[in-house]
Each structure stands twice: as structure tokens, then as C-alpha cells.
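does this look right to u?? zinc ion version
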Amino acid sequence: MTSSTCSYEGCTRPVHNKDEGKCIFHAKEKDPQEFRDALADQIRVWRKEKATVWNFRGWVFVDVQRKDKYPLKKSNLFRRAVFPVGADFYSAKFSGKASFCSAAFSGTAYFYLTTFSGDADFSSVTFSGIAYFHSATFSGTAYFESATFCSMLNMAYTSFSILGDFTNTTIGGDVWLMWPGVGQERKRGRLLLQGLKFEKKGEEEPLLNLRGNALQEDCKLLIRDTKMKKILLEGTDCRLIEFHNVSWGKYKEKLHAKRQIVGDEHYLRNEPSVFGKNIPSWNKIEETYQQLADRFRKDLKHPAANDFERGIFEARLMAAKQKNEEGKRDWHNRFLLGAYKFASDFSGSIFRPVFWTLLLTVIAAVVYGWLLYDGFSNVTWWPDFGKVLKSAVAALRVASLDRGWFSSAVDGSLPPVSDFVRFILSLTAIIQTLLTAILITLFIFSVRRRFKHTE
Ligand SMILES: [Zn+2]
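got this back:
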């Protein structure tokens, strides 16, 4: 006994292809023109009935044009199509090239488990709702060129055999690119994010959220010609992202040099609400900077790598300023990192340690001159150059670890110095020696950082 309705689950349409036992939409073998007419009729019915979702579940799409004879743009089943409600393409198959060029999805665009056998053209498409490509398979190139995404873009388990091309895409809202899929056997291909534009379309701040994507050797992101200030990277391994000609956010603190920063740091400082419930910790931001420094050092882009290395320490300092899980602040690190920043801008400044060394020498010279050479006994507007010179030499000898100075100048002083003065002089000399040693080390660190070429 043969059933007169389509065997696809839930489908009540009459059988079109008797061999397959399926309706015209679910059958694999059918006349393309006949399918096209039936599709047009079906859409008319959905419009008339004001269907809440257009259900293309399990459909097999064939097109009139032969794929070898016509370029992609001629394949026009859904070219400029307007989907006023959600469109459900669950498990649908596009046997040739699929063109959604310039289409508009007002509701959710649901392409879960959809198979695109040829190239798929989503160029200039507007996705007002969620674009859900979970587990979709693109056997050709997937073009998303000049598309606009206003909500979430879910790429979990999506596989791109060749490339997912997101050139000149507009991000119009808080867009999340979710690309987890750890432990998947399937090849996932590469995604090219190129020339992304950020334009406010709705209430949300336009942002591309790349947080928590699991990248691997065979599924990399390429980001090109894009402003990174609008992209959140926390939790995604930046060592596996290729950056070409991107610009970063800038952060400038009073008395400190400008530094290139990631969007995550910018928003964590200024607008943490964009992270929703999962506000990243400074330790996570530190991890991102560590990966970026590695990536840019490897690519021989040293100035950027230097900035990210400063970012690592800045994130550590910010973490030390916050209370940890036990409600305690890390005073030890806070002091050390604060001093490191103060002395050399985290090895970002060569000038700073030199300046502090000179200032320290001058201060020490004043102390020696005052206590030992009677430098302030009769202060006039014109200093006694003999005494100034003696004090300066004393400070320089201490700075250069000349141990002879102390015994000859202090012990041999006439009249002899009191024990108290001797104590102050010793203390000053020890502090000067220690600080000078530290500052010279920091100076060497800064020079090394500046002229670093390979790790
Ligand atoms: Zn059917």
C-alpha cells in the first residue's frame, strides 16, 4: 500500500516523486522549474496565512541554472528575497550554488545542519535577528561580503571547506561569533574577517564579540583592515588569529606613554556592562595580552608586541588592586608593579630610568654636600663651585660603587663627623647604591625591550 502523502516527518503534502515517496520540496529528483513554481506558490500561501515562520525544513533546493554554465550571481532562487518572519532551513540541502544575495531576514535565520554543496552567497544580506549557522556545512566558499549582522551570529560546529569570507561586513549590534566545537572531528576551515564596519543600527553598541571561541590549527581567524577597538577577544587564543593591517585602541595615562589596547580593556575600564554577566577578570585580559605579545613577536611586529607586553603588567597591576576571592588585596604585587610602572613604565621607557638615576644622584649630592662639605653654611645666590663639584663627585663615586670614597672622605674628614652624621651618610649611600643598581637594571630592560628582535 502506497501512502499518498510525503514521507518526511510532519509533512502532509502529496507525493510528487513516487520512487522517493516525497513531496516536491523534499524529493531529491525533480524538475527545477516545477520546483521553482511550487516554491513561489508556497510563499504566497505563507504570506496570505501570515505564517509566523517559513518552514523549509529538510527541503532539497535545486535551481534552474546549471552550475557550470552560470556564475554564482545568476543562481537566484532567493536573490533579494525578503523573509518577513523567521526562516527555518533546518537540515535543508542546496544541491547547487545557493544565492541569498541582498536578501533580508527580519526574524531568525535558522540554518542548523543545512548543507551547501556549492558556493553560498550571503553577500549584502541583512540579518536583523539571530543568524544561526550551527553545524551547517559549506562545501564551497561562503560569501558574507557586505552583509549586516544586528544580533548573534552562531558558528558553532559550522564547517567551511574553503573559506568563510566576511569582507566589508557591517556589525550593527552586539554580535557574537560563537565558534566553539572542541573535540569535533569535522574540518572547520578558516574565517576571514576583513574591513569590518561598525555602525549603530539599534539600541546596542555595535560590537563583535569573539570571546570564548575555540580556535585550532585547522580553524583559524584572519582579521584584516579592521578596528580592533570594537572587537572583544578574551578567552579566544589570539596566537591562532592572523592579524593584518589592523588598528588597536589607544590608552593614555597622565605622565605615561600611549599604549595600544584591546577592546576588552577599553570596555572593562569604561563600560563593563557590554560584557553582560560574564565580566572578564584582569587575569583573563593579561592572558590575552600574553598571547598577542607572542603572536606579534613571532610576526616580527615588535612595536606592537612591546605595547602588549606593557599591557601584561598593567593587567597584573589592575588585578592586584582588586580584591581576590578571599576579599584580600595583593599589596605586595601592587607595590612592586606600581614601582615598576613608576620607574620605567613597565620597561616601555628608556628615558624614565635615566631621569630617575640623574635625579637620585642630584639628591644624594645635596645630602653629601650639606653634611660633609658644609654646603649650606653660608648660602648665597652664587654657589661655591668647589663644594658643588666635591658633592657631585661624592654622589658619582657612590653611584659607581667606588668603596674608597667613604673611608677617605667620611673617616678622614676634618674636623671628624659625629656618629649621627656618619649614620645618615651611610644610610644615604646604601639607599643610593641600591636604587641606582635597580634603575640601571631597569634601563637595560628597557633598552632590550626596545631593540628586541627575536625571542
Ligand atoms: Zn514533504
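The radius of gyration is 34 Å. idk if thats expected tbh
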